[in-house]
Amino acid sequence: MEAEKTYCLYCHKLLKGRSDKRYCNDECRNAFFNEKKKEEHSVMRDVELRLKKNRRILRDVLGEYHTKTTTEKLLLQKGFDFKYHTHHFTTRNADEYVFCFDYGYLAKEHGKIIVVKEIKNEE
């Protein structure tokens, strides 16, 4: 009885050697898994780029100030995407700041935005 032939999962060449072998070599194995993760990495890269852009916009608007008031319209003109942020922080006064890494903003009435840099507690 002849053993069943197996083929590389990436390049589809006939495999020789162990019966449980799945790839020709390390290159085929790595290429197979890289191809499999390509879409996931693309989505994550897109989100990361949007977060970095949002952070850069907030940093540039804030400049050397500790806080600065701007408008939602100005942030949108610069390409800010309000859907992307890293975390929220709610103060004792129930003000909810939205952050992109270490820069954040507080949305106020009439399209006003207060931009801040996160304050680190040193203990």
Throw out a few tags for this protein.
5 strands, alpha+beta, 5-stranded antiparallel β-sheet, 123 residues, 35% helix, rod-shaped
Structure commentary:
This protein has 123 residues and is an alpha+beta fold. It contains two helices and five strands; from the N terminus they run H-E-H-E-E-E-E. The longest helix is centred in the middle third of the chain and has 37 residues, at 26-62. The chain is rod-shaped and about 80 Å long.
Structural class: alpha+beta
Cα separation of the termini: 74 Å
Provide the helix percentage.
25-40%
**Uncertain residue segments:** none
Question: How large, in whole angstroms, is the Cα Rg?
Answer: 25 Å
Mass-distribution shape: rod-shaped
Strand order of the largest sheet: 1-5-4-3-2
Strand content: 15-25%
What's the structural blueprint in terms of helices and strands?
Elements: H1 26-62, E1 67-71, H2 72-77, E2 87-90, E3 96-100, E4 103-107, E5 112-117
Antiparallel strand pairs: 1-5, 2-3, 3-4, 4-5
